[in-house]
Amino acid sequence: MTRQSASPSHADDELSVDIRALAFDELPAAAAILTHGMLNNPLHVKVFGADPEHRRRRLSRFLGPLVTYVHSNGVVLGACVQGELIGVLGMIKPGRCRPMLADRLRFALTILASAPPTTLLLFHLWLSARARNDPDEPHWHIGPLAVLPEYRRRGIGRRLMLHGCQHIDTLEASAWLETDLEINAGFYRTLGFDLVRQEPVLGVPTWFMYRASADTTG
Questions:
Q1: Which residue of 47, 172, 179, 193 has the fewest C-beta atoms within 10 A of its own C-beta?
Q2: DSSP annotation string for 41-58
């Protein structure tokens, strides 16, 4: 398989963007960016509710612990412009992307504090679908990814993904992700991800994608 090359867009060249791993005390800001950027994702609407304010509160309660989990089991990358955090990408190390029971319970309890039991059931079905589709072979699990609205379409998300993919390539490792947005699936294809399957999760079309390790491409 020949991997497509990817490079930052010209629009991104207008900004001086610093991509780096975030420290623990920066995780609340990262969770806030993810909540804002992913509020209207179809699966989040399905799981956390149609009302925007309720959904924002429930999603925030989930993403806070999730970002902490990713940080403890991988890396949370941040894109900064003049010291301001404007974009976030999570990357979980091989063997760590299926949370243990204690972690799943922690996620569930934080959600239940601000949501009805039906939300908890949908959340469980969502995570179960992700685990069922997750490859058995070792891989980095990519996501979540979000950029502040005022900085979108300027290559920030691409810069974050390129940084992460280059790190994975140095390890000769593979990567896996899922997305509920078709436009994102097209974006990930430009970074070397191939579509493995598309199937509904809770009735929402979802794309599951794989990026082969560097030693199997050429």
A1: 172
A2: -HHHHHHH-SSHHHHHHH
Is the Cα torsion angle 21, 208, 151, 44 positive or negative in sign? negative
Classify 179 as helix, strand or coil. Answer: strand
Which candidate, 76, 116, 104, places its Cα nearest to that of 92?
Answer: 76
Residue 203 lies in a domain: yes
Q: Where are the alpha helices (DSSP H) in 10-155?
A: 27-37, 42-48, 52-73, 101-112, 117-133
Host domain of residue 150: 11-216
- C-alpha radius of gyration, the chain, whole number: 17
Q: What is the pLDDT of residue 5?
A: 39
Number of structural domains (the chain) is 1
What is residue 87's predicted lDDT score, i.e. its pLDDT?
98
List, for the chain, all residue ranges whose pLDDT scores fall below the cut of 70.
1-14, 215-218
CATH number at residue 173: 3.40.630.30
Nearest-angstrom CA–CA distance, 59 and 114: 10
**Which neighbouring-strand residues pair with 78?**
20, 88
pTM for this predicted structure: 0.89
Beta-strand relationship, 84-92 and 204-211? unpaired
Coil, helix or strand for 205? strand
CB 206 within 8 A of CB 131: no
Cα angle 214, 217, 218; round to 5: 115
